[in-house]
């Protein structure tokens, strides 16, 4: 199994619904976007009224990682009429409540998505024609459409 940041970024780009259903309507999808504060955001998605700034880490999410994303959001040059939503992708920390409280205290809309929970690195693809979305390997039903993923004997 590949767990490099590049693999995770490409997995997200191939399956934008993992971030949010509305991301399918993104008019702009960019990788490695330079941010004035220094550094590069892994993914920037531009929708009609929203910009998603996505930072991917293959390790455990920490407040230091959150600070990096907060810095990007604070300096991102975007149309004032658009809402900016930050997404942190990485492994779930032992005390996720501390991270969530830190993100809320930032005053920005930032959502953590955890590898192997929200973003499955090993997955099964739903066979239902109208779905074809990825699910964790141990899932019995598709989390998106509810169809069975494997037979239960």
UniProtKB/TrEMBL annotation:
InterPro entries: tRNA_endonuc-like_dom_sf. One of its GO terms (molecular function) is nucleic acid binding. It comes from the Bacteria. This is Protein belonging to Uncharacterized protein family UPF0286.
């Amino acid at each position: 199994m590949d767990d490099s940041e590049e693999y995770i970024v490409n997995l997200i780009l191939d399956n934008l619904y993992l971030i949010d259903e509305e991301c399918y309507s993104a008019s702009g999808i960019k990788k490695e976007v330079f941010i004035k504060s220094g550094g590069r955001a892994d993914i920037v998605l531009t929708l009609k009224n929203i910009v998603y700034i996505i930072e991917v880490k293959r390790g455990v999410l920490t407040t230091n990682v959150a600070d990096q994303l907060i810095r990007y959001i604070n300096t991102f040059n975007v149309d004032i009429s658009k809402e900016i939503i930050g997404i942190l992708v990485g492994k779930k920390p032992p005390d996720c409540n501390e991270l969530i409280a830190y993100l809320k205290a930032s005053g920005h809309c930032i959502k953590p998505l955890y590898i192997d929970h929200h973003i499955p690195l090993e997955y099964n693809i739903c066979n239902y024609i109208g779905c074809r979305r990825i699910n964790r390997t141990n899932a019995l039903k598709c989390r998106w459409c509810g169809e069975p993923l494997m037979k239960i004997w």
